[in-house]
Each structure stands twice: as C-alpha cells, then as structure tokens.
C-alpha cells in the first residue's frame, strides 16, 4: 500500500558534496565527501527516446532507449582547491594550470533539493567526470553584479550496494527533521556517513 504522499514542490537547492572514486569505480577513495558551498542551480538531464517497431502498417512494439546522463551546475564561486580535484589540474607554488594532459578523476556527487516546509529530496550521482569550464568575466558597471561559475559533467552507471543492476541516479526524500534517506544515500553513493553525523564508515 502506498504511504502518505507529498505534493510539496522544491524551492531551493543546497549541500553539494563530491568525492573521488577508486580506479574500480565501485568504492570511494579515502577522501571524505567534500562540500562545495553556495550551489545556485543544478540540472540533471536523463534523456529517453521511444523506439518503435512496425508491422502490418501499425506499431507492433515500443522500447525505450536511454541517453547519457549529463549535469550542468552553477556555483556562486568554485574554489581553486575543488577545481584542482574535479578537473584533474596540476598545481605548482600556488598556481593552477589547464593543459592537454588534464585527466579528471571519476567522482560521485550528492545534492539536496529543498522545500519550503523543510522537506529535502536528496539526489545521488554514482559515477561521472567533470569537464573544465570556460573562463569568462565582464567589466564592472554602475551597479554591482555578481558573476557565477558554471560547470558541466557526464555521468554513467555504477554498481550500488542494495541494487541488483548498476544505477546512474539515486534519490530519497526526508521530511523536516528526518535524515534516514540522507544517511542511506551517503552510504550508497560514497560508502561513508554524512559528514558530522558521527556514524563510522560502513554503518
């Protein structure tokens, strides 16, 4: 039987976390989930296409073809330390560089969509890579206008504990004051507890 449904629309987004994956792509590294503050906007595109088979001048069957998972996001500011990790940049004496040999690591990500009543919908992306962003700026005019930083990423399926088949996106909902879905999602995506929860990894 279906439990109590909620129809509260989301009004905001927050708590973007990422962590690099081990080469196997299944377990995260020893890196703890790292938060990037002041996420402004994020879009997860999950395209599907209906493929039709025809016979006798009509549709005989319909199948679904799943497209690639792509993510675009905007931050108030993406710190250089996070850029170094997400884009695989080389650094030297405080300088960070983009070059032809940049190789971004596989990462897992989590963020929360928030509702006015305190409900949070947690979204987890198990495995993907971020592409280096464009560099742009504009002159200051009469009024102050803050400029944000946009990023793009591509995600793929990954084996996730508790599921029979590889998954590309996971989500769960917590009502105000609850953390059950959050904690389960952090374990599924990162293999670690939500930062500051006090629970040991693997629990």
Structure, explained:
By secondary structure, the chain is mainly beta. Strands 1, 2, 3, 6, 9, 10, 11 and 12 form an 8-stranded antiparallel sheet that branches. It has a single domain (10-190), classed as Pnp Oxidase, Chain A (Roll). The protein has helices at 80-86, 180-190; strands at residues 10-20, 34-36, 39-45, 48-55, 58-66, 69-75, 90-92, 95-97, 107-115, 120-131, 149-156, 170-174. β7 (90-92) and β8 (95-97) form a beta hairpin. The protein has 2 helices and 12 strands.
Shape: globular
Helix percent band: under 10%
Could you tell me the number of beta strands?
A: 12
CATH topology: Pnp Oxidase, Chain A
Sheet having the most strands = 8 strands, antiparallel
Number of domains: 1
Q: In the CATH hierarchy, what is the class?
A: Mainly Beta
What value does the Rg take, in angstroms?
A: 20 Å
Helix/strand order, N-terminal first: EEEEEEHEEEEEEH
Task: Tell me the strand percentage band.
Answer: 35-45%
Figure out the total of helices. 2
């Amino acid at each position: 039987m279906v439990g109590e449904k909620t129809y509260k629309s989301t009004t905001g987004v927050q708590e973007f976390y990422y962590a690099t994956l081990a080469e196997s792509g299944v377990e995260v590294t020893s890196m703890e989930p790292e938060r990037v503050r002041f996420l402004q906007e994020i879009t997860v595109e999950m395209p599907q296409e209906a493929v039709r088979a025809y016979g006798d001048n009509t549709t005989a069957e319909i199948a679904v073809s799943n497209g690639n998972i792509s993510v675009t996001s905007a931050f108030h500011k993406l710190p250089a330390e996070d850029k170094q990790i997400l884009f695989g940049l080389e650094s030297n004496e405080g300088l960070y560089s983009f070059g032809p040999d940049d190789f971004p690591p596989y990462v897992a990500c989590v963020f929360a969509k928030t509702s006015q009543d305190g409900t949070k919908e947690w979204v987890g992306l198990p495995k993907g890579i971020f592409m280096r962003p464009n560099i742009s700026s504009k002159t200051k005019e009469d009024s102050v206008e803050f400029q944000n930083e946009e990023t793009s990423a591509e995600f793929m399926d990954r084996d996730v504990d508790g599921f029979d088949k590889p998954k590309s996106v996971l989500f769960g909902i917590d009502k105000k004051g609850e953390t059950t879905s959050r904690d389960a999602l952090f374990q599924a995506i990162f293999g670690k507890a939500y930062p500051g929860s006090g629970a040991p990894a693997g629990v």
